[in-house]
Every structure is written in C-alpha cells, then in structure tokens.
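user: can you give me the structure for this one chain? tokens are fine.
assistant: on it. calling the predictor now.
[tool input]
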Amino acid sequence: MPLSKLKFNPGINRDRTDLAQMGGWYDGNMIRFRDGYPEKLGGWQAETFTPYVGEATKLFVYSVDTGAEIAGLATTKKIYVRAGTTLFDITPIRVTYTTSTTPSTDNCFTTNTTAGTEGQVLVTITGHGAETGDFVTFSGAVAVGGITAVQLNLNFEVTVTGANTFTIQTAGTATGVATGGGTSITAAFEINIGADSSVGGYGWGAGTWSRGVWGGASVTPAIINVRLVFMDHFNNDLVFNLNDEGPIYYWVYDGAFNNRAVLLSSLPGAIAVPTGTEKTLFAPSGHLLALGATEYSETSTAGITIAGLVSVGTTATATTATAHGLSTNDWVYLYGQTPTAYSGTYQITVASTTTFTYTLPASAGTVTAVGAYQAIDYTAGDYDPMLIRFADVNADIGPKPEVWRPELANSAGFLFVKEGSRIITGANVRQETLIWTDTSLSTLQFLGTAEVFGLQLLSSDTNIMGANAYANVNNNMYWMGTDSFFIYDGRVNVLKCPLLRYVFEDINREQAQLVYGGTNKEFNEVIWFYCSGGPTPSTVIDRYVVYNYRDDIWYYGQLNRTTWVDAGISRHPLATSGGYIYTHENGPNNGQPLGATPLAMDSYIESSFMDIADGEFYMLTKRVIPDVDFTASQTSN
C-alpha cells in the first residue's frame, strides 16, 4: 500500500476527547506552532548572577536618557534595580534607629556560645516593629564577643523572638557571652516583607498571629494576599506602590545605584499624596493615577505661638514659643503676617524643635507682624476601593507626580468607578486606560477640560483573574477572566478557546493574584502563567497557556515563570524564576544559573486519534517517516 500523508490541525484541543478531535493535537509541552507546524520553544539563559530574595512579582524594563537599560524588579521581600547582570537593593527603609533615637541602639548585641549557634546574635531594640523575615542593615558597630565589626555591619534577615528582641545569623563564631557593639550603631529596618502566596480560610495559618481567642474558631475568614508591586517610570526615575492599600514610593535614578527608594510623600513639593492605593500607573496624558485610593482630606490644627519671624533672601525662619512638633516636608498655613508675602500655604523644613523654615516666592522685607499658623494634615482620608485619584500635570513643565491636591489652577483630582465593589487593576492601551473592577471594565480617557478625565463603562459583565493577568499587543488588550479569555479591540469580546475547561477546571483560584500575562510578539503569542489546581493545588506558578493571535490557536505547557517582559528595550524576552532573571528565545537549552551546564528542554507533542482512510479494515503501520527540521539543534554523544 502506498504511503499516506498525515495532516494535523494546528493548536492543541483538550475540551474534546481524543476521538472527537481526530486529526488534531491533544497534548504537548514546551512547543509552539509556526505556520501551522509544531516546533520546540526557544531556550533560555540566566541573565543575573546573584539570586534575588523572595518570589518575584513584577519585572519592569525601561531605558534612561543615556540609552542604558534599567529593570525594576519587585519580590515579596525586596525591591531591586537591575543594571547589566547586577541587582541593586533599593528596598525602602521603614525606620532607622541610632544612639540618639528612642529606642536607642547602644550596645544592642548579645552573643552566645551555645553549640551550633555561635554565630547567632541577639539584638535588643525596644519596640523594633520588625517581623520574622524582615531585613535590617547595621552600620557603625564594633566587635563584641568574638564577632567582628565586619561580620556585624551587614544586611541581615531577622527572626523575631519578642516585641523588643530578634536574632540575626552572622558569619562569625562567638568566643564568649557578651553584650556590646558600641554607641555608634545605626539600624536601618526595611519595610515589612509580604506573603509569597495568598492564604485564605478560617483555620490555622490563616490571618495574623493573636487574631481572636486562643483555640476559638474565626467568625470571618482571614485573607492574606500575596505581596504585589506595580511599577512605572517618570523620566529616569522609578515609581512603584505596594498592593493592599500600600504606599507609593519613588526612586531617583543614580548611576552608582547606591540610594534607596523613599516615600513619594517625602519628596520636596509633595502634597496630599494618597497614603494607600491598590495600583499606580501613568496615564497616556502623563497623570499619575492611583487606582483604589485614600480619599483627599485636608484637616488643620492650630499651631504653637510664633515668637519670631525673619528672613534671609527667600528663606523665612519661624521660631515658636515652645516645641512645634512638626517634621520636615509638613505643610503649614500661615496667616496674619505683615508683609502678607509671608502668609500662605508652605512646605517646611524643620531646623530645630522650636524653629522651621520655608521658601518665599521672593524677598519680602522686614516682618512687622508675626501672625500665626495652622498645621495641615492630608493623611486622614479613608480608603475607597472604587476611587481613582490623579496627580497634576502642569501645562508648562509637564507631569508633577508629587502634587495631588486638587486646585483650580492644576489638573489634580479624583473620580469614582460605579460598577463593582473594588478596582482590581488598570492598564494603558491606545490612548486610554482600562480599569477593571471585580465585575466590570471601564475606559478612562483624558478630556483636556476642567473635568480632566471621563470614565465610560465598556462592560458590566466581565472580570479579570488577577492584577497582572493582561497583555497588550498591537493596540489590543487580552486578559484572563475568572472563566473565559477576553480581548478588547475597541469593544469587549470573548475569545474562543479549546482549552477552556482544561485551564479553568485545573487552576488554583486562591492564587489568582499570581497569574501573570505577557506577550512574545516575535511569534504572535500572548502567554499567561498560572498555578495549577487539582487535589494538591500549587502555590507557585507551574503552568502556562498561550494564544497565537495570528493563527487563532492555543497551546500550553509546564514552566515556572513568575514575571515576563517581551523583547523590545531588551533584545530577548525576560522572565524570572527561582531567584534569577532569564533571557528567553536565547539558544536551544534550559540554561542554568551561575554557569552550570545547560539541560535539555522537556519538549514533546502528542496527537489525537487519527484515521488514514474510511473503511472496514484495520491497518498495521510498519513505519512512520517524520518531516523534522533540526535547525539550531545541538548534537550530543
């Protein structure tokens, strides 16, 4: 009998049985389709040498004005900036204690000689506020009990033993039990770490320690969300926020990469910055958006009596009769001064407990009446999960991401989303910003009028699996919903997917926040990474599903990648896994970190049942002649 050519339909279909989907592909891993034919995925190579700490939840790539590529990398424990193959720690500092603060750090180290723990040091700082897993950096310490200064003045992960104590693990070996370290110790505590995965329920391990009565059942479920971080850039600088009503931070680009991010509200000129938000991003108009935010609030408190007011040039110095209790970058409203040029709303710099300074628009002459002042607080607003706030964009100088106080003379403001109960995420496409809530999708568009933005409902019957479960390519937005895949191309449509049941019946919905979408434009692909479900649901990403939008086909596989950024600024797509950043579509192999020998990729594809011809006879197949291309493959003996 002559040879028969076997033809298979491209893509994988798991929503039909093997027999029903005859002539197609039923299973596969690490494969894609090009021009209708299957091929192995491209390989990857490790890009960084020092592992990051925690699980990566955001990778954001941009270029600075020198043309250099910068990548912001956020994990559940730290914030980094990647330059070349090096990661620089820019995690914000929560609080710093020294010898002159309360509490003091004087002689806070105690060594021990218990066998097997000689390198462990007990640190005593009253009310330190740290949690197990947090990080602290010590400097200025001297040797104590055989542990050297070099071994103490480092960054450590802490294990909390009490409200006033914690331990660190040094590389030294104590020679005796001693308390010391000197009186010049600085302890800089980083912001508290977040959870690697979401935890929900009523039982043990759900919720915070000491929640409710010991041994009693919880009345309401505790939900601990995974730490997510959202990033954007302003010129060379990085703007980011923590989810779950987290604050907004700002990192000023420095080619030496030796500075840390700080609160956006701590920048000079910062006013009425939201104290909590779910996500920040810049709209196409240049306005920094806070999706889900604390409400704008302005409250005033009478200040201490002004005993004196003088100026040198444009710097005015106010002296109060007693301690004013203000802090640098606070705002005050001064009134009743003569000349009146000294009056108005100003951001101050604290010079001492009884003096503060502020900058006048111009020299104002000798003061003849000192007047009074009020301290202004912009932080008392309640959090509203459906509120959108936006910072100012100045017509002359452009975006002012630190200015959030609405005024007639600026474009800062706010508006509310009406459909749903909370904003999940937002993303830019075309010249608009899409806003997803738990039940709807709206479009936010810049109007250029006194209202600044207009908000229009696109769909009241859509949802999104997680805050990063979207991808934008060719001005189309694709996203994974809770039971379907969607596309927005000017209107909302549901994508037909032959893997729908395969994906949504075997996804760990408790880890929906970990779902991460991306694109691979070279191969016309949109990809989603997610955690599998089943009898033992995975709490780490272990699967992916791909939509090829040119050929309108789907395929899937197994791979741990927690973030993804397409090629563009970077030559290859970038992804994160297991402590390292990888470049994808880079070689044929499963590249290993730290120069280890690459491994072969576990790629395969399995067809559905097939028949060669209609009839009543069975046929014995003696041989199959595959049509295979080994381009770029490597031989191994």
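assistant: here you go. Helices lie at 149-152, 500-504. Residues 202-218 have pLDDT under 50 and may be disordered.
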